[in-house]
Amino acid sequence: MDHRRFSVRKFPVAAALLVLACVAPPALAQEVSLVSALADGTQADRDCIPAAISYDGRFVAFLSDAKSLAGLVNPHVECYVKDRLTGDVELVSRNAAGDAANQDVREVRLSADGNFVVFSTSATNLDAADTNGSIPDCYLYDRAEDSIELVSLGPDGEVGDYESREPVVSADGRFVAFTSYAHNFAADDDNDTYDVFLRDRYLGTTVTISVTQDGHVGNDQSYAADITSDGGLVVFQSVAHDLTDVRTTGYDVYVRDVAGGTTTLLTLEMDGTPAFNAVNPRCSADGSVVCFSSGDALLVPDDTNGAEDIFVLDRVAGTVERVNVTTSGEQGGLSQFPTISADGRFVGFWCGAFDPLDPLDRNYAPDGYARDRLRGITFRVSVRDGGDQTNIVGVPAIVSGDGRSYLFGSPTDVAEEGDANGHADVFVHELAPTPATSSHYGSGFPGELGIPTLTVAADPVLGQPIDVTIGSSSPQWILGFLALGVTPIEVRGSWGGDLLVAPLTLIPVPVTPFGYTLHAQVPYDAAFWNFSAVLQCLELDPGAAKGVSSTDGLELDFGY
Known about the structure:
The chain has 1 helix and 40 strands. By secondary structure, it is mainly β.
């Protein structure tokens, strides 16, 4: 079958689509919304720091010592959860009586649905089980049950004799992994430093995660854990060199299979040598994809920037990919603090001021960026509503599980119109709210061989090639006219069929008896999010009733 394929240079479909997008831009290109404010718009009267976001981006946790958020008189740094759907802001670092934590809260994470909030604090008034005074502990707040629970406990429920920090929680709230300096959580803990533990809230048990293959506690510090959605795998960083049979010399990233009882070294150079200083690991929901940062130049080819980069390990494919690169593949500069979506497709991270990944990034300040690994697109997250850059941004882009929402902070800069409190605030950058789709509508009109067809090979994802195929209604070469517009209509035409597009442009198309395939592409750009186009082809078919046949209408919704 002789399907002819035209490039943009030979056929102006792509150019026409771009013109249409400019003539009729989408209703919503992007949305950056203020989070650290009450439902009535009252902003925080102190600084706010972003902390965590739920899978669907609805719930956002942030930290603040503001008085205006919960009417606190002399607040410490407390944890709040904002429901972006209702606008409600909830104080979650509080005890059963409703009293706020009497010491600062830090290191907050959310469960996938946003119901379970875990954090660390030195507060002494949250749970009666906390009997170790002002030693930092980890807590879990259940928003549905309005209850709080001390979770940094030993195997027999004992309180730690030294600090516990960095809690992370499984999707259902059952498992909490945390870091602790406590000496009484493992019988053979003689390394006098931080270790990683996993608490099973349902069974009331705690096991050590940062252990060797035979179950002994590692010989040096381990921390910065992340957990899979089911709690079955825990990734963490460690400088211990006895966790596996491979001897390491710096920080590396490991994964512990809890049920299988195995510890695996994940970060290796191209020749199989352990990486040098791989840190800040995060994992996808099933643990198959792990991101981390490292200054090791031997993890991927052509790493010559001499800076810490962001890498993604696909454990299934066995590949390592550097993601703090431009869309065209050029390497960036210093990048840290990666986060990853549930499916491993999107990675958010912090990028330094002097090697920006966006050519329009000229604020000479750190920014939050994200990488779409599927399409190879890098975009800046820390922008104002409408896409303009902010002046000062110093925190990373925290990606939601579904990859559509990005949490970031902007200290003292006006990142949204109306933000005038003069304090650091928390924002969410939302990507296209609808996915790419294609659909047919109306009815075509037959020619000699029947009704011609108009089909698309795949839904029109921005940044990806789009193949539109026109089927012929004639056994001979004929001329067709592709009508492109943004408004579907249904008007009876003089040839007996329906005109289904209010055409903004008509493009002549030579249609063979075997059809014709046209190639187009709309760039991955905020300006085209939610752009829709409608198409119909009219063919000059001598065998048609009045010499014209027509396809049905095809609607292309460009998007995510």
